[in-house]
Design a protein that fits this description.
This protein is α+β, with helices and mostly antiparallel strands. It folds into 2 domains: about 220 residues, no CATH class; about 120 residues, Immunoglobulin-like, CATH 2.60.40.150. It contains 5 helices and 18 strands. The strands form 3 sheets. Strands 1-2-3-8-5-6-7-4 form an 8-stranded antiparallel beta barrel. Strands 9, 13, 14, 17 and 18 form a 5-stranded antiparallel β-sheet that branches. Strand 5 and strand 6 form a beta hairpin. Helix 2 runs antiparallel to helix 5. About 5% of the residues have low confidence.
């Protein structure tokens, strides 16, 4: 997929991985796929084969490899408008189905993280929700059994919720589709064991023995560059280091106890256009008392220097800076750890504040 697409998807993965997923209640038995659901999936398979071999389908799937996420999102939403899907839409209108939504989505693997896949999809209302609403969505799947490959295939889904209500957490397990098809079936539940829907994913790269999956679905809008998501993806640069750990020598006294709620930001090679400021952890913090060590293990790509700022997120008076660090390539030696002290002193009066970080250079001159 396009590099910008990967960056945009990585930010959703970062948001997903920062969430505290519940331990789902496991259903005693799996629901059987009904005859009408089987007819829908069988026709969906035929329609997809015909579409992917058509002039329009080949053109879109070729161009998809070079699209960013918003462009791909717009294209996926138009797939069902092609004539190859007319019979499928007719069946969706005529058959008695328990579902309230039908979805189609392009499924792909996250090349930068093993065991992560995505589905960029479009859902329409059916049954009582026919014509009421539609939605565009992005699902992040945490699973095993994905082989390396950017584009996995297509996913069809029948859902018990209206298109606008497809967002949120789901837990899934493999289910037999009941007919001969080169595809994997998955039945999905909410954290409270409520049945959410059934999917069929067609395409090489997905192991039919995946057993269990977890996912989180984002309902997409017109938010452009997704301003509510913290950036996660880092472009490859010449050198690679790890911020191994952060030590609280003495916390800041913020009147809220004897510990600080710590997170830090880092930026490679100065500011300016195109240089991204990253946060770690992206959406939370790490509570630290005196002498605590946070084994953060934050990897960083850089060319010559990295600037790190440590904050105490006290939730009342804003986020107070408790440490700033300047890491220069010239100070590091390969495979050795260096301890850095803050470049500025943030102690004041009786409030003695001190944090240190340990940094190790892992690779040098990676990109010529």
């Amino acid at each position: 997929m396009d590099n910008k697409f990967e960056i945009q998807f990585a930010n959703y993965v970062g948001a997903c991985k920062a969430m505290d997923f519940p331990v789902p209640a496991k259903p005693v038995s799996k629901p059987a796929i009904s005859d009408n659901e089987r007819k829908i999936f069988a026709e969906a398979e035929k329609a997809w084969i015909n579409y992917s071999n058509s002039v329009a389908g080949k053109k879109f799937l070729t161009e998809l490899q070079h699209m960013d996420l918003p462009t791909a999102q717009s294209g996926v939403a138009k797939i069902l408008d092609n004539p190859e899907f007319d019979k499928l839409k007719s069946l969706l209108n005529s058959l008695d189905l328990r579902a309230s939504s039908f979805s189609i989505g392009i499924s792909f693997e996250a090349e930068f993280i093993l065991g992560i896949a995505g589905t960029l999809g479009f859902a329409i209302g059916i049954g009582g929700d026919k014509g009421v609403s539609s939605s565009e969505f992005l699902s992040v799947w945490i699973m095993e059994g994905i082989e390396l490959g950017a584009l996995v295939g297509v996913q069809f889904g029948l859902w018990d919720s209206a298109p606008a209500d497809l967002g949120g957490y789901a837990w899934g397990t493999e289910v037999a589709l009941g007919f001969e098809v080169e595809a994997s079936g998955c039945v999905l539940y909410s954290k409270s064991e409520k049945l959410l829907g059934v999917t069929m994913t067609i395409g090489a790269g997905l192991d039919e023995g995946f057993a269990e999956v977890e996912s989180f679905t984002f309902i997409l809008g017109t938010q452009g560059e997704n301003p509510y998501l913290e950036p996660v993806y880092q472009p490859r640069k010449n050198n690679f280091l790890i911020i191994e750990s952060l030590t609280c020598v003495h916390p800041s006294s913020d009147g809220a106890g004897d510990e600080n709620e710590i997170y830090f930001t880092f930026q490679a090679d100065g500011g300016g256009e195109g240089v991204v400021l990253y946060r770690n952890p992206p959406y939370s913090y790490f509570s630290m008392k005196e002498k605590d060590v946070w084994e953060c293990g934050r990897s960083v790509w850089f060319n010559s220097n990295v600037q790190v700022t440590v904050y105490d997120d006290d939730g009342t008076s804003g986020n107070d800076v408790v440490g700033t660090f300047s890491i220069n390539l010239s100070e590091l030696t390969l495979d050795n750890t260096k301890t850095y002290n803050s470049t500025d002193n943030y102690s004041s009066g009786f409030d003695d504040v001190e944090y240190t970080i340990n940094v190790k250079l892992i690779a040098q001159n990676v990109v010529s």
